[in-house]
TrEMBL record:
Name of the protein in its database record: Uncharacterized protein
Protein keywords: Oxidoreductase
Domain of life of the organism encoding this protein: Eukaryota
Region span, Disordered: 73-96
Gene Ontology molecular function, alphabetical: oxidoreductase activity
Listed InterPro entries: Questin_oxidase-like
Length: 96
């Protein structure tokens, strides 16, 4: 996973905070669907974590953000058929 890049504000942070931010971003990527409901509203957890990182948040704040938002998110479903060059048109419009 590439290191986090500084944002526009880029307040000082610690290596521990940066490491936890990356860990939680990756955990979100592996665990949660990009939409959190059937209306197509997207998962804002990565946004919250990246903004907190740029504002110099502590590891405890990253953990609190994750613990508060993660339960509201839709888990990833089971792995399905791979989307390929041959079948992609038949998969258009699926909400999986």
């Amino acid at each position: 996973m590439p290191p986090l890049r500084p944002g526009l504000i880029n307040l000082p942070t610690t290596p521990e905070a940066a490491q936890l931010a990356q860990k939680l971003l990756y955990e979100d990527y592996l665990s949660h669907h990009c939409f959190f409901n059937d209306l197509g509203f997207h998962n804002h957890l990565p946004h919250h974590l990246v903004v907190a990182y740029d504002m110099g948040a502590s590891p405890g704040l990253f953990q609190s953000i994750y613990e508060e938002l993660a339960p509201t998110l839709r888990p990833l479903g089971p792995e399905g058929e791979d989307i390929t060059q041959e079948n992609w048109t038949s998969r258009l419009g699926e909400r999986k």
